[in-house]
């Protein structure tokens, strides 16, 4: 709930009630168990104060409610930023920090345990194949070794997104190191095209979302190679005839004689 707006994070965490209509929040849903709060450093000050009150009184008020709701939960909070620095900067309550910092656990970045990369790649391939019905593809040993030596500035989330993108856009049963290199170049060189991709709606059916993502991705790559479809085919690892059909189907303007 940390990355939401103040109003929405409070409503999701504490729930709400209006005219006898009760919406149970995460606190009540986790009552008697454990609640995971991600990106706690992003939580607004008002919600921080309400959460602190829960620790102090073991109860809370739903949004719009007047009767205290008792609660008994264990809270695990995660953050990718230094909370001590956030406290010093006045962005995070010191008293809440000490309530949360009972048993701190430091998770090393992915680059410090790169021996796990091959297993993580296989895990996310299987996950996307099962959950999103994407085509199965296997990372070659050379591709796995290349990704083991990548620094992963975005950690697990970057790895997960890369696997998903390769399953959606790639061709053939095996992901070779050349395709990985092309993907890493894309990761290292964000442009205005990436900003357009960030605005894609997430409530679309998978086929429509895939088409929009492919269009943004291929337009960006085509621009990078100066409009050459031949170079684009090598860059993205697609057979040229299939790529022509893909570009036409997505309505992407290209210079046919630029090869």
TrEMBL record:
Occurrences of domain Sigma-54 factor interaction (ranges): 1-168
Gene Ontology MF: a single term: ATP binding
Any Pfam family the entry gives: AAA_lid_14
UniProt keyword Transcription present: yes
Keyword Phosphoprotein carried by entry: yes
GO-annotated biological processes: regulation of DNA-templated transcription
InterPro entries (UniProt xref): AAA_lid_NorR, Homeodomain-like_sf, HTH_Fis, P-loop_NTPase, Sigma_54_int, Sigma_54_int_dom_CS
Gene3D superfamilies xrefs: 1.10.8.60, Homeodomain-like (1.10.10.60), P-loop containing nucleotide triphosphate hydrolases (3.40.50.300)
Name used for this protein in its record: Nitrogen regulation protein NtrX
UniProt source species: hydrothermal vent metagenome
């Amino acid at each position: 709930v940390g990355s939401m707006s103040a109003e929405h994070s409070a409503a999701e965490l504490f729930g709400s009630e209006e005219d006898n209509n009760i919406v149970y929040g995460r606190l009540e849903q986790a009552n008697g168990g454990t609640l995971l709060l991600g990106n706690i450093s992003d939580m607004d000050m008002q919600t921080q104060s309400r959460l602190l009150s829960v620790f102090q009184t073991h109860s809370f008020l739903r949004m719009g409610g007047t009767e205290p709701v008792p609660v008994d939960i264990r809270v695990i909070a995660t953050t990718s930023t230094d909370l001590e620095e956030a406290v010093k900067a006045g962005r995070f309550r010191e008293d809440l920090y000490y309530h949360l910092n009972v048993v701190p656990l430091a998770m090393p970045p992915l680059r410090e345990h790169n021996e796990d990369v091959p297993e993580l790649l296989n895990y996310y391939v299987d996950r996307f194949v099962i959950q999103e019905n994407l085509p199965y593809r296997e990372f070659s040993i050379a591709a796995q070794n290349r990704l083991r030596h990548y620094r992963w500035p975005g950690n697990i989330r970057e790895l997960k997104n890369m696997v998903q993108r390769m399953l959606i856009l790639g061709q053939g049963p095996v992901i070779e190191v050349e395709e990985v290199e092309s993907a890493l170049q894309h990761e290292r060189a964000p442009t205005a095209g990436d900003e357009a991709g960030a605005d894609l709606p997430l409530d679309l059916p998978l086929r429509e979302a895939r088409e929009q993502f492919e269009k943004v991705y291929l337009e960006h790559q085509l621009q990078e190679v100066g409009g050459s479809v031949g170079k684009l085919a090598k860059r993205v690892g697609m057979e040229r005839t299939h790529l022509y059909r893909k570009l036409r189907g997505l309505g992407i303007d290209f210079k046919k004689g630029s090869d």
